[in-house]
Specification:
By secondary structure, the chain is an alpha+beta fold. The chain has 11 helices and 11 strands. The protein starts with a helix and ends with a strand.
């Protein structure tokens, strides 16, 4: 059980340092605080649920690890410096375990304090022999951040109405998917991307058939067409994230045949127009900084970099 005072310290820090000014421009302060608390409590609930952690253990079995080892832990780095963290596996690869810091109540003062935290977390999850520690920093924060070469996924966020103002290429159209009749082609096309772009997709996996079906049933999956030909998939889900209300991009895949045609901006605009009609205000998603085509396309589409994760190796 995570004490209420720990939640309050984390909430205070995240409201002050994790929330980007862009979010404050588009969401009321009370809503931001409520969203942050919802995210904190959801992570605690999922990370301490015996059924979920046992499922995690069955899916990613490690010799000698018990169900409790897969649960999130509360670690105190110092008085009042709380860390909630859990074990994860890069691309679900059991040979690439790392510790994810889900929430914390303070920023790291310097590299020495970060290394001290990593040492404690490495011992806490020693059964998994973690190779790195992952944590998030806002791009607007003045707290310590590691070297740029440890930068992981960046979060790109934009106002839906601004994204929707971008002209849409006449040959591109989208249609809401009502059945999962495209999964096999999606999976095959994803395999092509993984093969051709291992540099920044080394940790990515295609959405499972179960998860994709769930998105279709929630009416948040769009099939992309170019000149009437099935050309890709764009999937979003409505959620709160980093204090913001909006739609998170789960999948944005143009098939091999249609890449390189400068359709990315049009696709984001077409989807934004659909979401605007649903009352959506913000669109956000994660992109590897080394995936320059996607990163630049997001910036062109009126999205900004609000922060990102750092994956720091454990030495």
């Amino acid at each position: 059980m995570i004490d209420q005072s720990v939640k309050e310290r984390i909430l205070t820090y995240e409201f002050a340092q994790i929330v980007h000014p862009f979010v404050r421009e588009h969401c009321a302060s009370d809503a931001i605080r409520a969203n942050l608390l919802t995210e904190i409590e959801a992570d605690i609930r999922k990370g301490t649920d015996a059924g979920l952690t046992n499922g995690f253990r069955e899916h990613c079995p490690v010799d000698g690890a018990s169900e409790n080892d897969y649960m999130i832990r509360h670690v105190q780095l110092a008085t009042g410096f709380d860390i909630l963290a859990g074990i994860r596996f890069r691309g679900l690869d059991l040979n690439r375990p790392f510790v994810a810091i889900l929430h914390r109540s303070e920023g790291f003062a310097d590299g020495d304090q970060l290394r001290h935290a990593m040492k404690l977390l490495s011992k806490e999850f020693a059964i998994f022999s973690p190779k790195a520690v992952l944590f998030y920093c806002s791009s607007a924060s003045d707290e310590y951040t590691p070297d740029a070469d440890t930068a992981d996924k960046r979060i790109l966020m934009g106002a839906i109405d601004e994204i929707a103002s971008i002209p849409v290429e006449g040959s591109l159209t989208i249609k809401k998917a009502h059945e999962l009749d495209f999964y096999e082609q999606y999976r095959d096309e994803y395999a092509i991307v993984e093969k051709n772009s291992p540099d920044y997709l080394r940790a990515e996996t295609a959405e499972s058939e179960e998860d994709m079906r769930d998105c279709v049933e929630k009416h948040t999956t769009y099939k992309v067409y170019v000149s009437g030909e099935f050309a890709g998939v764009f999937v979003v889900t409505k959620m709160t994230f980093l204090g913001a209300d909006g739609y998170y991009v789960i999948e944005n895949l143009l098939f091999e045949k249609f890449r390189g045609r400068k359709l990315a901006d049009s696709l984001q605009s077409a989807v934004a127009r659909e979401l605007s009609a649903l009352g959506g205000r913000l669109l956000f998603g994660s992109i590897y900084p080394s995936n320059l085509p996607s990163y630049r396309a997001a910036l062109r589409s009126h999205r900004i970099d609000v922060g990102g994760n750092y994956m720091v190796p454990i030495s």
